[in-house]
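FAQ: What does the model actually see?

It sees only this:
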Amino acid sequence: MQALMLEAHGCLAEPINEAYGRALNQGWLDEAETRGKLWGIPVSLKESLPIREHDITLGLVSRIGSVATADCLLVEMLRKAGAVPFMTSSMAPAGMSIDSSNLIYGKQVNPLNTTRISGGSSGGEAILVAKRGSMLGFGTDSAGSLRIPAAFCGVSALKPTFERLSTVGIVSAFQASSLNPKTCVGPIAREVGLLVRTMEALCAPSMFAMDPTVMPIPFNKEAFEGTLKQRLRVGYFTAFSGKSVPEPVPAVVRAVDLAVRTLQANGHHVEAFTPPDPTTILELGFRVMNVDGGAEVSRIFQDEPLTKSMRLFVYYCQLPRIIKRAFTYIAQYLYGPALGAIGRGLCGCASVTSAAKTIYELKQFREKFLQSWNSEEGPFDVIICPVTSFPALPMDAASIYTNGCVAYTLLFSLVNLPVGVIRTHSVSVDDLGTALRNIERFEAEGDKMNASVARLQKDTARETCGFTHCHSSKNMSYAKEIFKF
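And it is asked to produce this:
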């Protein structure tokens, strides 16, 4: 019955038939001290994390029949730690959409409310974990593919720094198109404690020997327990400055405020942090991810039937660069600076010189961010902010104005910082009342972008009430242990 319910949510890809036999032969009579830290825990994995002799369609119809010839290294590490991989989950086509529905496994629906999306591209894992179909899952994240589904489905997740966990053997539809950000592998679970246990197991010397490219930094238990530093310096922000991307809805603002008040009550120093300009994040981020101007996207989807959520993006990538630039000006005039920035980024780099300049711009962006992090009063230990501007979007109702909200997740991918997503509270009736009252204010100000996003919530107000929301926490590279707080 549970399997049928999960299948109805569109999250299942393929069961690992040998999992039952592996579990039976796990060594149940072994002494506890000889068991791995993940001993006996069933684990599900996003389909792009291959398991030998199992499908790796990546959500693409053209890849039906593609079978993994070997386990990715993460699977080997999990088995060495005692875990039992038992299921693969479906994902957005080629991992390129905030909606993880695809034409192979069907429409993915949110586990908390079937009128809403689960997020993408690791939406299958978020559904499995939220519905208790899996204790522990693994997904991938380049620009928010793990964090957004976790937030939409009300579970916890961790995007580590790149090369903190092994990516050897991961399958991608892309052969070459991205300068940055690199794909990270991360765990997802209902409780933060299991994420901690997982990182303890995988960030260990025995695992580092299996992949010498992984940073050989063991999990710092003292840092997690707070014995190294009792009082943290915490930065926070609830929104970007200006009117480039939609304002967070009241429930999102309350999630950050709740985290801030809790940290202050526990004696930590909390102060406002000013994030970079979101249009810079969007233009630079989409350019480094699509340095070829969409040529690789066009190749992948050349003969691929498209889901509704993918059509506009793929059609735009297939346009000649000169037409893209013309459409960018039109989009910015009609829909605002965020969409204009995304359009310019998707034009890519026209030459090797342009690509080299982009690499230099990324370096400057990171250095400027680091200067903000290391203020006169000392560096921040962690930053609290929203995952996106809103809870899970209604099915088939995503506004074109919501695209700019990926700036929240893309920022910390560009600067390569670890990010934790933490479940906080549910959307309340008061949150909805405030959100609905904001519509009149936005319309009076002529703010079409925020009015459009607010109307999405108004049109589905009853379904939104009670929805779980999350906030995300970021700290400096490789020091993810601070996420206890």
